[in-house]
Write a structure and sequence with these properties.
Length: 264
């Protein structure tokens, strides 16, 4: 990255429905709430992060698709949100076919990296990239542009199996495209304390992955599920609900990790 102070985190999981977009939106909101300037780049063709931050499809005239295809500079696609300090480069359905459009480019894995490198004004402390639920060329672009990968992991039976595949992909990107890429952390999501399986999965993940797993666990929470339909992050929709409080704790834990990284 051109600006060493800016941290770029790709929120990645090739499985859908694991809380990836929810984590990107609410973590970004929590970081903005404590004074960090945050840009969320929505790279998922479903555009759920854009919708969850109140951006209608009609407002998305310039999107992250235009950034990847070189039709727009990143700054031309950025919108403010109702969260002070949180901006978004929205997604459009055109992203569903962008892999085929960019596969012939010489720097096809570095398109987002190049777009970010041109933004040299240090406007943001954190860039959070919400990736599609696949290990596609779009996701590879996100990991090539990022300093770190944040992995939301649903507390379900096949969690470790999917995680192994993702970690192999991260290692391939590190070796061939981005030697500075690291695993920032694994976030356990949709945890149900009443379900013995959730507890067993959480224990297994911690035994296999150790300290890379965040202590904060995101519970299964109705208010988190309701918030996107109102065009709001959960932290604005219901600040006091268990899910919102968990994301506030996650942001605090992430910032502590970041401080430790700088100190090291």
């Amino acid at each position: 990255m051109t600006d060493k102070r800016r941290r770029v985190m790709a929120v990645v999981n090739q499985k859908g429905g694991v809380g990836k977009t929810t984590t990107a939106v609410n973590l970004g909101t929590a970081l903005a709430a404590v004074g960090r300037k945050v840009l969320l780049i929505d790279l998922d063709a479903q555009g759920n992060a854009s919708t969850g931050l109140g951006l209608s499809p009609e407002e998305r005239r310039s999107t992250s698709y235009d950034v990847l295809t070189g039709e727009r500079a990143l700054r031309e696609t950025i919108h403010t949100t109702r969260v002070p300090g949180l901006h978004i480069s929205p997604a459009s359905a055109d992203l569903s076919g962008v892999d085929l459009e960019i596969v012939g480019e010489d720097r096809r894995a570095h398109l987002l990296f190049d777009a970010l490198a041109k933004e040299t004004d240090a406007a943001y402390d954190y860039v959070i990239i919400d990736c599609p639920p696949s290990l596609s060329l779009v996701t590879i672009n996100a990991m090539t542009a990022a300093n770190a990968v944040l992995v939301p992991l649903q507390c379900e039976f096949y969690a470790l199996e999917g995680l192994s595949q993702l970690l192999r992909t991260v290692e391939r990107v590190r070796v061939s495209l981005n030697p500075d890429l690291e695993i920032q952390g694994i976030v356990l999501t949709m945890y149900d304390a009443r379900n013995r399986l959730s507890g067993q999965v959480a224990q297994d993940v911690r035994e296999h992955m150790g300290d890379v797993v965040y202590k904060t666990v995101i519970p299964r929470n109705v208010r988190i599920s309701e918030a996107p339909s109102h065009g709001k992050p959960a932290l604005l929709y219901d600040h006091a609900c268990a899910g919102s409080q968990a994301y506030i704790q996650l942001a605090s834990e992430l910032l502590r990790r970041e401080r430790d990284l700088i100190a090291a």
